[in-house]
Amino acid sequence: MKKIQFLLIGGLLAASGLGAALAGPVEDAVAEVQHEWEVTRYQTPVKEREKRFEALAAKARQFSEAHPGRSEPLVWEGIVVSSLAGEKGGLGALGLVKQAKSLYEQALAISPEALEGSAYNSLGVLYYKVPGWPIGFGDKKRAEELLHYALKLNPKGIDPNFFYGEFLVEQKRPGDALPYLERALEAPPRAGRQIADTGRREEVRVLIEKARAQMAN
Fold first, then answer.
1. Most buried in the list 48, 71, 194, 216, measured by CB within 10 Å?
2. Which domains does the chain have, with CATH numbers?
3. What is the rounded CA–CA span in Å between residue 178 and residue 183?
4. pLDDT in tens, 75-84
5. What is the mean pLDDT of residues 32-54?
6. What's the alpha-carbon Rg for the chain, to the nearest Å?
7. Is residue 9 classed exposed, middle or buried when 0-12, 13-18 and 19+ CB atoms within 10 A define those classes?
8. Rounded Cα–Cα distance for residues 66 and 198 (Å)
């Protein structure tokens, strides 16, 4: 059977709603997972990422279980599991993306606006990157709805603008995508998120060039 590649799921968003000024058990746990995620995603050699994401997924699960009723750990557990799926690729990733989907849905049921709507954004990304029926649950229309929700909650954020721009490029709508990508490039820096911001901006620049190439053809 032909392998299915869940492309770029490993690049799922780094939630932007955690400020450096916040403090507390949940915030500390989320900050720890968040930092390890961005180091693994942007500063770790490709061949080492899968093992590191597996270890981080186990840690994120412990944090989620230690803080029931809070959505933030669930969002970040979902991001880590999605990233692990991206590293594994193929049919073996399908179970992981279904797990991530469930985690985001649990987070939304608790607090839809947590982390500036990051669960909406992350879930929307899954819906447009995962294949549709009968293999997976992918749904481009649902993806766009979720990405719109995320933008309403965080209209200037780097991640919601990047991922909606990416969605539009993949849908061959580069003219619609460019304003969102440019907004992502101009997004204000996030406190304590230099690694993620630097990596994401480079991804934005690459996608802008892709969008411009689409428009030229």
1. 71
2. 9-216 (1.25.40.10)
3. 8
4. 999 999 999 9
5. 96
6. 16
7. buried
8. 31
